[in-house]
Amino acid sequence: MATYNYSNKDLVEIDLISGNFDDSCIMNSDLDSLRSNNVFWKKIDIKDSNCNDSVFNISSFCECNFHRSSMINSRFNKCKFEKSNFSGISLIKGKFHNSRFSQSTFESCTMQRLEFNKSIIQNTSFKDFEGVYSKTINTVFLNCYFEINYGSGMNGFSSGNFENCIFMNCNFSGYPLRGANVTNCTFINCTGELSDDMTAINSSGLPLVINPTNRTKKPIANREKALELLCEVKNG
Question: What pTM did the predictor assign?
Answer without folding.
Answer: 0.86
